[in-house]
């Protein structure tokens, strides 16, 4: 990584933090109430460290293999790590003990495997339940109509602690329409909080990415996950 690239990442993180703070204040909250997760996929350890040095709160990785490689390289040292991608049940064991939160829990079956692996490690794993808020066929995630039933089942698991909800809304143009999905998420979040389930703490609402994080914050997001806004376009 060149000095120039480091500077670019540093400035991008600062710009994002400024916009996050403004959006938080505009919606009557404090800047520190919003967690900035750097979605670090496709970015090497050095670039991850540059983002950490510039002040992101959390690193988020969405492939197990890539996470393990960068973990070995101490890329995430000093910051919590979230898993944010599609997770196969047979890979759960590699994450336990390394990630402070699994944001992308899209089924009771996956939650049960996490519970089993966390029990083996003697820990309680924080998770978010991922909703398929746009009911898209191509996407994993819990159907909004099934969330209560899922919560009731996951609440029984001793080694899993639900901390809130996560979603990747459908791609829409313009952003105007996306607030519809953010608002739906926010309403579900409020409804579930009001039900006061045992063993469920509703303090995290993870939604909003590079293109729409300010709108997401206006609608109540407490976690935003930014990739391209911090690191530039990904080259697949
Ligand atoms: C890549 C990714 C992001 C960030 O996307 P950008 O549009 O680049 O900000 C957020 N959440 C998840 C789950 C991702 O995989």
Write structural notes for this entry.
α1 (3-26) packs across α2. The protein has nine helices and eight strands. The longest helix has 24 residues, at 3-26. It has helices at residues 3-26, 45-54, 64-72, 92-95, 108-121, 147-154, 175-195, 213-218, 228-231; strands at 35-39, 58-61, 81-83, 101-105, 125-131, 160-167, 200-206, 223-226. With 236 residues, the chain is of the alpha/beta class. Bound molecules: pyridoxal-5'-phosphate (PLP).
Write the layout of secondary structure elements.
Elements: H1 3-26, E1 35-39, H2 45-54, E2 58-61, H3 64-72, E3 81-83, H4 92-95, E4 101-105, H5 108-121, E5 125-131, H6 147-154, E6 160-167, H7 175-195, E7 200-206, H8 213-218, E8 223-226, H9 228-231
Parallel strand pairs: 1-2, 1-8, 2-3, 3-4, 4-5, 5-6, 6-7
Bound molecules: pyridoxal-5'-phosphate.
Describe the structure in brief.
Belongs to the pyridoxal phosphate-binding protein YggS/PROSC family. By secondary structure, the chain is an alpha/beta fold. It has one domain: TIM Barrel.
């Amino acid at each position: 990584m060149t000095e120039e690239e480091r500077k670019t990442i540093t400035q991008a993180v600062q710009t994002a933090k400024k916009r996050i703070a403004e959006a938080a204040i505009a919606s009557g909250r404090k800047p520190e109430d919003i967690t900035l997760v750097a979605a670090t996929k496709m970015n090497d350890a050095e670039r991850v460290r540059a983002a950490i040095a510039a002040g992101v709160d959390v690193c988020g990785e969405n492939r197990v293999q890539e996470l393990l490689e960068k973990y070995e390289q101490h890329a995430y040292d000093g910051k919590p790590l979230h898993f944010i991608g599609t997770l196969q049940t047979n890979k759960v064991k590699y994450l336990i003990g390394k990630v402070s939160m699994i944001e992308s829990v899209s089924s009771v079956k996956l939650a049960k495997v996490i519970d089993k692996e966390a029990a083996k490690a003697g820990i309680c794993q924080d998770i978010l339940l991922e909703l398929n808020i746009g009911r898209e066929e191509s996407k994993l995630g819990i159907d909004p109509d099934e969330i209560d039933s899922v919560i009731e089942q996951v609440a029984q698991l001793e080694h899993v602690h639900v901390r809130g909800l996560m979603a990747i809304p459908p791609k829409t143009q313009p952003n105007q329409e996306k607030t519809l999905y953010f608002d739906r998420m926010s309403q579900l979040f409020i409804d579930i909080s009001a039900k006061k389930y045992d063993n469920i703490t509703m303090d995290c609402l993870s939604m909003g990415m590079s293109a729409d994080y300010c709108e997401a914050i206006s609608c109540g997001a407490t976690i935003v996950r930014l990739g391209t806004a911090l690191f530039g376009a990904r080259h697949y």
